[in-house]
Amino acid sequence: MQFTSEQHLDDGVFEREFTLGEIPGTLWTPGSAPAPLILIGHNGGLHKREPRLVARARHCATHGYAVAAIDHPGHGDRPRSATDEQARADLRRAMATGEPVDEIFESFVGPLVEKAVPEWRTTLDALLSLPETAGPVGYSGMTAIGIRLAVVEPRIKAAGFFAGGYVPRAQREEARQVTIPLLFLLQWDDEGNPRQRALDLFDSFGSKEKTLHANMGGHAGTPWFEVEDGDRFFSRHLK
Amino acid sequence: MQFTSEQHLDDGVFEREFTLGEIPGTLWTPGSAPAPLILIGHNGGLHKREPRLVARARHCATHGYAVAAIDHPGHGDRPRSATDEQARADLRRAMATGEPVDEIFESFVGPLVEKAVPEWRTTLDALLSLPETAGPVGYSGMTAIGIRLAVVEPRIKAAGFFAGGYVPRAQREEARQVTIPLLFLLQWDDEGNPRQRALDLFDSFGSKEKTLHANMGGHAGTPWFEVEDGDRFFSRHLK
User: Which InterPro entries match (chains A, B) (predicted)?
Assistant: First the structure.
């Protein structure tokens, strides 16, 4: 793990960019060490420097967590393959013309999960070797990657899933193998994420402690107080 | 309003029993005054001294709210009419034999709402005339009474509804007239409250800001952290 830049922010958070092989990432740490670690998984075309993601990460860091985000293959700073570009073009065309998008998402998100989860595990190894971080570990973000991580990675003890975006069939099946405490966020009128499918997914998780928070509005409308509720969820399980 | 007993509790809360005409109630106030007021509406056979209700009320009072509960007609310390007794007996018999209970609930809860809401408004007048209380006012508890109160009582600025128990047809219709911020609690496997009906009710509220919190387990299994989430909800809207 190579740190490529560092910055002391005015809220007391220490922000560092890193690379780990091909994986570019950012680590935010509070002044005090060692802190429990939260991995933020983002999706779609998003970038690890996307402003809302950064605001969320810094907020968590000021509340005593080390927080890491990486750019997944084909995202952010990373090169996009011809297949990625084709899938994105197919998706834009289908959404513009109102064609079904499930199979396009499946062909795009399914392989993303397969590639991103081993990268997260490699990143986790490296992050937990730093003196600034300590277990237990939480995950917060994209549902599809989070499900697979929660199933295969025993160091992850609690997860907050954002029920936006497409969850591949494989992860919908794996959901019943997830047994860690969950906070599942749903936007009630999320145009890209049919409500009933999200409710069915929530129902299928194997966790004994799982809480659904649903708020009004579309995909990008999650209210800020859910970030604060997320802090309290993680403080119950990671501290 | 006549105070009939008073007690300084070890958490700093001042607890007083009162009567207002036929209405018996309890008022919990924090040391500091004046405090925003939260009305706790309970249901079923419950009593204003039921331990979980009292724990919730005292918790809110230690967080800076004045909190009041009353026994509704036919509840707690109040006399039960022959009609009340008959409805309760019908309900027990129907639940034991697996008969449909909707019409029995309707005949029981419908009139309860009609009687309880004017009593709450009278109680609210009296409570707000005390130096220890100040607007704005929140409501927390039984959904059916809360819907009608939120529709007719402009002093109520935010409400937490517990989606347990039967909501009469009239209140399911009135739900779209509710426009104040809502926190709606749902127990995912509540045997007495079909999940889809609760989700439909949540959908129908007219409020722009409404949040659903769903947790695992049956009717009485709401986790304690929801009381703390309720505090934060009210602090956003009443303070």
Answer: AB_hydrolase_fold
